[in-house]
Amino acid sequence: MRNIYEVQKSNKIKSAVVVALFVVFVALATYVLAKAMSIYFGYEPGQLGFVGVALIVSGISSFVGYYFSDQIVLGISGARPADRKKDFLFYTVAENLSIGVGIPVPKLYVIADSAPNAFATGRDPVHAAVCATSGLLEKLNRTELEGVVAHEITHVRNYDTRLMSVVSVMVGLIALLGDWLLRATWFGGRRNNNDRDSGSSIFLVLGIIFAILSPIIGQLIQLAISRRREFFADAGSVELTRQPSGLISALTKISADSEPLEVANKATAHLYICSPFKAKGRGSASWFANLFNTHPPIAERIKILKGMA
Amino acid sequence: MIYILVAILIILVFWIISVYNFFVSTKTRVGAAIQEIGNQLKRQFELIPNLESSAKGYLIHEKGIFDELTNARKAISSAMNSGDLKKMTDAGKMLSDLLPKIQVVVEDNPEIKASEVVKNLMDELRDTSDKVMYARRLLIDLTADYNVKMVSFPSNVIAGIFRFEKLKGLETPVDGDELKVGKEEMETPKINL
């Protein structure tokens, strides 16, 4: 049994540790890959050039998603702005919780989909958007909806979209570098065997190992960060509403629903309150399967929430 | 060596600035949070007559409820004029206390229960008292953040140097009968069905 403040504190520390681990890993992988590439092509100053190009390519693709994240929501088929009359509970609950954290009310959207789920996006609290499916609004009562919207507002308040975008730029960077190195070595490329000593061939072998493994490792750490932020948002939701029972019963209802969300894709999966892909066994998933999930198992989330009650 | 000292000094100065800014900005935000409570009370004050007139036809026999709505409205208005934080929070409570009473009336009368207008009235009443509650929550949270930094090391040193004072926040009694649990309250309530 830990109270909400202790949970928040340990969340903060764990999250910082995972992010620090990630930064160290990215730096190491980038260094090794760049070094291996420059040795392979026999072109010393090239190492930073490759990193630069990879950073730009990976950065542009993620930046577009990040900067226009609130507008991309509109592009999702069937997303309509929430209306105070029609979606009274959703609209007013979001309004009230924004008063509670002292941020402007996010733009609110409703997706016509019977699978109950919700997500938040937007680069900062001013450009934030919270989106709920019509299934969610139908199935939850006010207290439950308050728990869910408070979870999303905590994502907004903690700049989680920004964090996850930066993380995905970094993962993309490593993946690109690894991919280039593998392609180059696979197809033979230009070889100049004359100036190769044992030190540089070690780097080359290391580089190929990194090229194969680091995209996977990077993604695993990315998923670990995503799961940490979910725990964070759950605790933040309780801190706001002081009613863990609302979120607990909402999570139970959402997980009892087996319909997959049609509009979800892998890029936005980490933003939802519960993983939009329901194919994997829920609750009792093994730790190994859990490594590849954007969200912690619901049973574990509920256990922690109950501890806070 | 000298560089390390300079670096430490620069970090220290930045840290002092950030702690100082935390205190002054939170203090300002606490002021804004108090205004937000007043703002939400004003909204409540303006909302009540609308609700009254729309639901009057359905709750015509429940004069007591309308009297209490009017009383709540008066209390809010006088609290807003006085500008006293404690009075303002008390006035907000009157409306949320009224909600269960309406619920009882509605449960007793199936024809009222079915009416969209009365459901709307109850939704709006709950929403407006929630809004005042969340405005208070913001004040409580900000004051708590401020006061925790005030007493915890090392930020308490900065607070001491600049003579920041503890914020009162929402005033609640810290001793007296409100915090005592009487014998009756310890007993398990008996329910006769």
Automatic annotation (TrEMBL), chain A:
Q: Which GO terms describe its cellular component?
A: plasma membrane
Pfam family for this entry, one = Peptidase_M48
Enzyme Commission number: 3.4.24.-
Which UniProt key words apply to this protein? Cell membrane, Hydrolase, Membrane, Metal-binding, Metalloprotease, Protease, Transmembrane, Transmembrane helix, Zinc
Q: What GO molecular function terms would the record report?
A: metalloendopeptidase activity; zinc ion binding
Required co-factor(s) are: Zn(2+)
Enzyme group, top EC level? hydrolase
Q: Which Gene3D superfamilies does the record cross-reference, listed alphabetically?
A: Metalloproteases ('zincins'), catalytic domain (3.30.2010.10)
| Domain Peptidase M48 residues, every copy | 94-308
Q: What does the record say about how the cofactor binds? A: Binds 1 zinc ion per subunit.
Q: Does the keyword Repeat apply?
A: no
Protein location: Cell membrane
- What name does the UniProt record give this protein? Protease HtpX homolog
Q: Which organism is it from?
A: Candidatus Woesebacteria bacterium GW2011_GWA1_40_43
Encoding gene per record: htpX
TrEMBL record, chain B:
UniProt entry tagged with the keyword Membrane:
yes
Quote the protein name from its UniProt record: LemA family protein
Which family is this protein grouped under?
Answer: Belongs to the LemA family.
Superkingdom of this entry's organism? Bacteria
The main location is membrane
The UniProt keyword set, sorted, is:
Membrane, Transmembrane, Transmembrane helix
Question: What's the protein's topology in the membrane?
Answer: Single-pass membrane protein
One GO cellular component term of this record is: membrane
Q: Which Pfam families match?
A: LemA
- Signal sequence bounds: none
InterPro entries named among the record's database cross-references:
LemA-like_dom_sf (IPR023353), MamQ_LemA (IPR007156)
> Which source organism does the UniProt entry give?
Candidatus Woesebacteria bacterium GW2011_GWA1_40_43
Localization per Swiss-Prot or TrEMBL? Membrane
